[in-house]
Structures are given as C-alpha cells and as structure tokens.
Amino acid sequence: MGTGIAPLVVRCGAMGDMVLVLSLIEALQRRFGSQVDVISSGGWTRPLLERQPAVGKVYLLGSRKTPYLFSAEQRDLVTQLRARGVGPAWIADRGEFAPRLLRRAGIDAAWQVQVARDCPFQDAEQYCDRFVRFAQMSPGALAGAPTIDPAQLQDLRVPPLQVLPQWREDVGQWLRSLDLDGPPLYLVQAGNKRTMRWWAPQRRASNTKYWPEENWAEVIATMLAGDPAAHVLLLGVPAEAALNDRIVQVAGSARVHNAATALPMARLLALQERAAGMVSVDTGPAHSGAALDCPLVVLFGEADSVRYAPRSPSGRVEIVVRPAGAAPGVASITVDAVRTAWLRLMPPSRT
Fold first, then answer.
1. N or C: which end of the chain has fewer CB within 10 A?
2. Are residues 57 and 80 in contact, defined by beta-carbon separation less than 8 angstroms?
C-alpha cells in the first residue's frame, strides 16, 4: 500500500508464539508497505526474527517484572522509541506492561490496538487467523485507514517463516562433518522448557509435557524401521541434552543422534527445512518445523490444539491429543497413537 507508516508490534513470547506472530507482522507489512518493528524478549528472538523480510528493527527486553524505576533496560527502550517517533502499535501481549511502556514513550492509547481487548478469539479460530484479523484493525489515530483485501492474506494462515541461503550452507557443512549429509533425516523434539526445570524431577505430575524416554525410543524404532537408510536427530537446547542422551541410550541404535548442543536458531530452521519428517511435543520447534513444511506429528496434552495447532503449507501435520477424560498432559498418550499418526504421515511406501 505504501503509506509510509511503520507499524510496531509488541509480542514477548516463547518460540512458538514468535513463529505464529509472523502472520501478523507480514499482514501489517502488506497493508502499510513498510517493514514492521518488533518489541520482544529473549536472546533467541533476534536470530529468529531479524532476517525475516517483513521485520524491521527488533527491540529486546529482559525482565518485564522489574519496576520501571529500577530497570535501565526499560528506560533505554523508552528512549529509543521516543527517537523512533510516534506511530501505530499492535500489542499482541496480555496485561498492562506493554501499553504502559508505550505510553511512557509517547505512544498513547490513541495509537494502540490490543489483541486481548480488541480482537478476541472467534470460535475454533487458530492464532494465525486471529492475527490476520488483528492486522486489519486500526488504532483510533488511524481510524478509517485502508485495509487490505483478505484474499491477499489467505497464505498467512501459515506463518511465513523463511530460511536464508547461508543457513542452508551452514547446516550442510555441519551435517557433512557428521557424515549425515546424504541419508534421510527424521527429527524428534522431546523436551521443552517445562520439561527441563533442573530443580524438579521430570516425572512430576505438573510436568505435563514429559513423555517417558521408553515411549520416545519405541516411536524412534518405528521411524527407523520405515527407512533403513534414515537417521534420527534429537533436537533441543543444551539443557535438554541429558534427556536426549537417555533417549539415545534406550533407543540403542547408532542411527540416533543427540544434536541438542549444536543447534543455534539458524541451523535448527535450516535443518527442519530439509528434514524428511518430525515428531514433537507441543513446543516452539513444532511450529517452526511445520511452517517450513517438515511433515510433523505433534503431541498435545494440555494446550488447545485448535488454537495452537502448527500449520504447514502442504498441510502434512498430524495432531495427537490426550484421551478424553485423561488428566492434563501427554503422559496418557499411547505409543500406538503416535505410531499410527506417524504411519499416516509417512507410510512405508513413501519413506
């Protein structure tokens, strides 16, 4: 549209949240014709977002719980926003932290639109669809601003995540160093930040995303049986390496590898783009893998599988939910249910 307006999006979330919000960012870029600046948190957010075509400047915050008076980081951000100038802001977070911080920067309520207040979920609506609707809304100061034909946003039902050529080159070099550049690769994401709380036992009742190592090993055996040339890489961050090691040990195959200490964000995304398939708990890499069209089986034990369902361009996503009446968590999901979903996704004749 080329209005010259530079939108601002506020979203401080986990990895999956930041993958989903790309639909909002891209929709705003198309509507206003300029890159979208983003306020977020977490050091991993910058490599995920800042090279995406629709994203402009990324502003990062650490703690949002520290009172403003005692947070040099928040005060510095306010200074940067004042220098950026007043403009429209789409707040995709709940609570009063973001509206209050923007007001300190001179971006008052007339320039703000809030997803929780102004764009509540519709029935059976997934996050990307909600964010595309949200992008069509305008703050009071832009009342009457032109919107965009919804037909031009249909593709944004899948987050528009892109992989750069240099990321592909890096993952290729890394795989060659492991002698894994040729075989088909399957991925497993067994851990997540809730699983990896070091001060608490993983099998605790509150750990709703923990699935036993023995279960993962059985599913991996099914994955490998479908293709005698394939290898499985266990994903994660370094804190998840110990869990992966235990899975590798139980799996007992030289074709299963723990990659948790070697996957910076760019490499993870490039690996997911080239992988033949993936099984994951409901966590961030499930969303990025689906967005990059890696065939995916995902286990949902607590979160709303309609709102948070990962989406892919080809639609090759199988969602496995806990049995009706079972306690929240993935523990009640059976190995057979995951195996069946995998074989629907990757039947032996296609592996």
1. N
2. no
The label of the residue with tokens 């699935």 reads 211
Please enumerate in sequence order all residues whose Cβ is within 8 A of that of 263, keeping only pairs 6 or more positions apart, or say none: 235, 236, 237, 271
For the full predicted model, state whether its pTM sits above 0.90: yes
- Written as six digits, the tokens of 17 are 């949240």
In angstroms, the CA 20 to CA 18 distance is: 5
Of 53, 66, 64, 65, nearest to 26 by C-alpha is 53
Take residue 288 and report the two structure tokens written for it. Answer: 């990025």
Sorted by where each starts, the structural domains of the chain and their CATH numbers stand as 8-157 (3.40.50.2000), 165-350 (3.40.50.2000)
**Core vs surface per residue 12-41: b (16+ CB within 10 A) or e:** bbbbbbbbbbbbbbbbbbbbbebbbbbbbb
What contacts 165, CB < 8 A, 6 or more positions away? none
Q: What is the dihedral of CA 175, 176, 177, 178, to 10 degrees?
A: 60
- What the block records as the tokens of 199 is 């001060």
- Compute the radius of gyration of the chain from its Cα atoms: 21
Residues facing residue 256 across a β-bridge: 232
Contact 218, 335 (CB under 8 A): yes
